[in-house]
Amino acid sequence: MGYQLTGRMAEVCSCKSLCPCAVGEDPDSGYCGFSWVFHFDRGEINEVDVSGLNLAFLGNHRGNVYDGKVRLAVIIDERADDAQQGALVEAFTGKAGGPLADLAALVSEVVGVIRTPIEFDVDKGTGSFTVQGVFEGDVRGFTAPDGTPTTLSHAVMGSLVGTPAYPGKVARHEVTDAEYGLQFKGRQATQTEFHYVAA
User: Fold this and answer.
1) What residues pair up with 62 in beta bridges, in sequence order?
2) With 70 as the cut, is the pLDDT of residue 178 above it?
3) DSSP-based three-state secondary structure for 89
């Protein structure tokens, strides 16, 4: 199974400043609660077109993210048909190899797979997202004095979540998950641009 996926990912986590995981450091207080939303501007997985769809994670971990102890729920866009859902789950659980297998290697437990409507409108670090019944938020990217978006490049996590990264802050973040105990207070935000390829 091969894939080519191009798009944007918006992250919110419980750390108080720029995401420590981005540069390979431990999270604040040794714990990270996080939400990620991926939007596929263009994408194909084993000849299944996933362009325009979204996928989300809600999770947490203790210690360094590279210790591979991430626990998360996978949330699939309700608009995905069975073939698209199967392709996304295969790719993002690492079964298709490539950079997504490296990302999946950080995960020790998938607590559930959920289908729900997902909306995504984040660009250059600023915008909003809604994962219906699970979490939603508004984020604001940092900027230079002239309004140019602040970027972070050549970071350790860049190969896994995309580069450049647009760091920012949380204007609003609400977690409504009651089933998996993954609630957290969102503080920092980062948006990336990804291009995943595997033969």
Assistant:
1) 31
2) no
3) helix
67: which DSSP letter?
G
- For the chain, the structural domain boundaries read 3-189
d(CA 68, CA 63): 9
User: Is 178 buried (19+), middle (13-18) or exposed (0-12) by CB count in 10 A?
Assistant: exposed
Predicted confidence (pLDDT) per residue in 116-157, tens digit: 999 999 999 999 999 999 999 999 999 999 999 999 888 877
**Angle, vertex CA 192, rays to CA 32 and CA 115, nearest 5:** 70
Assessment of whether the complete model's pTM goes beyond 0.70? yes
Task: Take residue 23 and report the two structure tokens written for it.
Answer: 């540069």
> What is the token pair recorded at 70?
């991430």
Best CA proximity match to 5, nearest among 36, 35, 41: 41
| 3-state SS, residue 140 | strand
pLDDT at 185: 87
Strand partners of residue 7: 40, 194
Beta bridge partners of 57: 36, 74
